[in-house]
Each structure stands twice: as C-alpha cells, then as structure tokens.
Amino acid sequence: MRSITERLFLPRSYHLRYPFGHALGEVGNRSQQLQILMDCLNLLENAEKPGTIMDAPYLWKRHQFEELFPA
Amino acid sequence: MIAQILSFLSLQLFKSVTVRELWSKNHREFEFATGPWTPLQKPVEESQICLITSGGLHLNTDLPFDMSDPNGDPTFRTIPLESDPNKWQITHNYYDHADAEKDWNLIFPLERLRELRNFGKIGSLSSSHFSLMGHITGPHLPTLLHRTAKELADRLRDEYTDLALLVPA
Q1: Cross-chain Cβ contact A38/B100 below 8 Å
Q2: Residue A21 lies in a domain
Q3: Could you tell me the residue ranges of all domains in chain B?
Q4: What is the tens place of the pLDDT at every residue in A31-44?
Q5: By the 8 A CB rule, do B135 and B72 touch?
Q6: Per the CB < 8 Å rule, is A40 touching B33?
C-alpha cells in the first residue's frame, strides 16, 4: 500500500499492486518470484536516499516473466 | 457466528487492491517526516541477508501468534535457516493465506533466496530468519516500535546480518 509506505518513510521500498498474501506473486511462479527479488536487490544497490520507493511494472496475472536463472 | 461472517466478508473485501488502497489512505497509525538511512557497506553479492515476514509464519512447535487479542500480537518468531518447511504454519486471521500455504515463497521467499545465493547474487543467508503477524493496532504499536523492533535489530546485529528484506503479507 503505497500511501502507508510513503508515510512510514522506509529506507528503500519496492511496491507491487498485488493482493494480500501474494507479496512475491503467484503460486509456483518461480520466474516471477526471482524477478521481484532481483528488482529488490537492484534497488538496494541503486537507491540514494531514504524514502525511495520503486514501483514495479508488473500487473497482477498479466505479465509474462522470463526465466532469469535455469531451474 | 456473526464475528466469523464479518471476518470472512472483510477478508473477501480486502482482496480488492482498490478497496485496500482506499483504506490505506486513511490509515495513519504511524507517520514520519524522515527515515533512517544506512548506505550499503559491501556489495549485495558479498552480503548476508535476513528475511523478515509479517505473514504470521512460525514453526508448528512454537507458540502461535495470539488471535484472541483484537489488537494483534506484537511478538516475533524465529524461523531457522535449516528448519523444515513441512513444519511451518501460519497463524494470522487478517488475510487469506491459502495460497501462501501452497507456496511459502509468496510471503517468505527463503527457497528463492537460496537459489540466488547459489547463483552468486547474494553472499549468504543468516542462520535465523523472523516472522511477525501484521495486524497490530492500539496499545501494541508502541510495543512493536520500541521493544520488538529493538529485539529484532539486536538479533540481526548478533548474527552479523548485512541486509534485511521485509516481506509484507
């Protein structure tokens, strides 16, 4: 919930508009989960000030995730 | 029975992202004008990472989170890195965790972080990871902020954790 995140002024946040209980996405979607984690790791490297929020471009159940790492 | 019906309706209602966002605009338990900042001390590829979820996860041998208190439970549970996921469970009545119980990675992506460690994207994983239940209100908020958060920070420091990834549920 972006508005709460803004008010909390967290150091670095990654924002997805996904349903409760699905922070990393869909059941068994390994590519999606790894992509989201990689985005978070990149945010750690690239954020320059507290309160940084990165908005994920991935729409719920509408984005096709590519395999970043072989299973 | 009425409480159970209201709880069920609330869970269904909050599945809507729009409803959730409308609710969150008026949810002002905490508000800060500035925030903490610690620059990275070393590359992520060399860092030790700890996972913290607010999904109410715990070992089935641990005391479950207290669902009898309408203000929630501000304590935390430890999930050891080498614990058996078959012995994990969720105690949290304020979100639908049916999918998370099919795939823990949705709220606690330890399996995926293991893979990223094996691919060299992170240095290592802490030996302990942590879980809270995310419905905490009223008198438990100061406890969360001033006691639980401090205890958690102490645990992270004791384990030489470099980075903490907080995953909301």
Answers
A1: no
A2: yes
A3: 42-167
A4: 999 999 999 999 99
A5: yes
A6: no
Position A8 in a domain: yes
Q: Identify the domain containing residue A41 by its residue range.
A: 2-55
Q: What is the chain A residue with the closest CA to B49?
A: A41
**CA dist., res. B148 & res. B75, Å (int):** 6
Q: Are strands B128-131 and B77-80 parallel, antiparallel or unpaired?
A: antiparallel
Q: A60: closest CA among B51, B55, B106? A: B106
* Minimal CA separation from A57 to chain B, in Å: 15
Q: Is residue A66 part of a domain?
A: no
DSSP state of A70: -
As to burial, measured by CB atoms within 10 angstroms (0-12 exposed, 13-18 middle, 19+ buried), residue B150 is: exposed
State how far residue B80 is from chain A, nearest Cα, in angstroms: 20
Query: Pairing state of beta strands B48-53 and B163-167?
Result: parallel
Q: Which residue from B minimizes the CA distance to A48?
A: B39
B54, B102, B103: best to mutate for the A interface, most A CBs within 10 A: B103
Q: Is residue A70 part of a domain?
A: no
pLDDT tens for each residue of B72-130: 999 999 999 999 999 999 999 999 999 999 999 999 999 999 999 999 999 999 999 99
Total domains, chain A: 1
